[in-house]
Amino acid sequence: MKKTLLITIDFPPQIGGIANYLANFCENLPPDKIIVLANKPENKNNFDSRQGYKIIREKLFYKYFWPKWLKTYFIAQKIVKQEGIEQVIISHVLPMGYIALLLKLPYVCIFHGYDIMLAKKSIWKRLWLKKILKRAKCLIANSNFTKKEIIKEGIENKKIIIVHPCPHIKPKNTNDAETQIIKKELVLFHKKILLSVGRLVARKGFDKVIESLPEILKNMPNLIYLIIGNGPDLQRLKKLAEDLQVRGNIIFIHDLKDSNLPVYYELADIFIMPARIENQTDVEGFGIVYLEANLFKKPVVAGKSGGIEDSVIDGQTGILVDPQNTKEISQAVLKLLYDPELMNKLGVQGKKRVLSQFQWPAQIKKIINYLD
Fold first, then answer.
1. If 323 and its partner were Cys, which of 163, 194, 303, 350 is the partner (CB 3.0–4.6 Å)?
2. What would be the CATH architecture of the domain defined by 176-357?
3. 3-state SS string over 259-325?
């Protein structure tokens, strides 16, 4: 593999699917062949010290520069010379694609769904998008949905490789005492538990789950809805729950570490995230949380949108619903709760699929030859 520089806005310890995707991507490459240029969060040291590859931290956007990414280009240019970089990988085609063009090295673009949709919004950005796509060595898409969006820009099918995200959270032998403590703290004994995990933004569809709760609770009054995550939609979701008089059946948990998630997956009966497309651009490009839930043998209820059909097989690992239809959402939840055999079947099949198809070493094999 050629000496490679990854330039990215999102990288751990930042939280999110893209950051985890890129970290796992790098972890499965030869550590002496990959260097990462990423943002400089305050809590970076604990993560960086545990990695086998080199991470260079800089402030990537400067308000006193125009364009704001220009300083990042100069930083990258210096790294290329000092480290003997032979090729570049970029995540977030705009603005990082401008930098890739200016560096005049072979480059690979990684796409996550939302990034390419956003780049199509203006005529100016779309013109640059096409130029960046055509000059790229190859293009990595996280799902068939994302691949189709790239093809719409006139790119040949053979230039695009799908590298699916894979779970970074692993099932473990959950400490029963820990489980009992959480059950006691949250008053979860003898409850049916609906679980969502994710950033609290509109496209995740947590609001539609809340809107479906009155119907669900009519039939299953002992249900509790756990929402794990934080984000700009938090207060709106809480108000919605109050307005619908279901706040007493919802527990919001903020800023939970990934290492503490397994016990909550174990506690859940069903995982739910009816994600939708917002503003024609904000889309779930894949949905790694569905695979995480499946790993714990949990059936999932997911929105039929974006790249979710790559991560959830309707009727096999979960149930796909119209993400805007609260009736469909409530019916899917109740169908599973009334049929424990179906819940177990979907969960078992989901775990089997994840273990056989969604492991990072196998996914990286798809792309490694293109990095030579």
1. 303
2. 3-Layer(aba) Sandwich (3.40)
3. HHHHHHHHHCCEEEECCCCECCCECCCCCHHHHHHHHCCCCEEEECCCCHHHHCCECCCEEEECCCC
pLDDT tens digit sequence for 313-359: 999 999 999 999 999 999 999 999 999 999 999 999 999 999 999 99
Question: What three-state secondary structure class fits 61?
Answer: coil
CA atoms within 13 A on the CB side of 226: 25
Residue whose tokens read 């273990």 = 355
Tens of pLDDT, residue by residue over 171-199, are 766 677 888 889 999 999 999 999 999 99
AA letter at 243: D
Domain ranges of the chain: 4-163, 176-357
- Altogether, the residues listed in the chain come to a count of 372
pLDDT digit string (tens) for 248-294? 999 999 988 877 899 999 999 999 999 999 998 899 999 999 999 99
Do domains 4-163 and 176-357 share one topology? The answer is yes
Instruction: Give dist(CA 94, CA 130) in Å, integer.
Output: 11
> What residues pair up with 161 in beta bridges, in sequence order?
140
Report which residue type is found at 196: S
What's the pTM? 0.92
Which of 142, 168, 163, 139 lies closest to 151, judged by CA? 139
Looking at domain 4-163, its CATH architecture is: 3-Layer(aba) Sandwich (3.40)
Are 294 and 347 spatial neighbours (Cβ–Cβ below 8 Å)? yes
Return d(Cα 11, Cα 216) in angstroms, integer: 38
CA distance readout (Å), 246 to 26, 53, 113, 203, 325: 43, 48, 33, 21, 18
Are 139 and 155 in contact by the 8 Å Cβ rule? The answer is yes
Q: Sheet holding 34-38: strands in order across?
A: 54-57, 34-38, 4-7, 87-91, 107-111, 138-141, 160-162
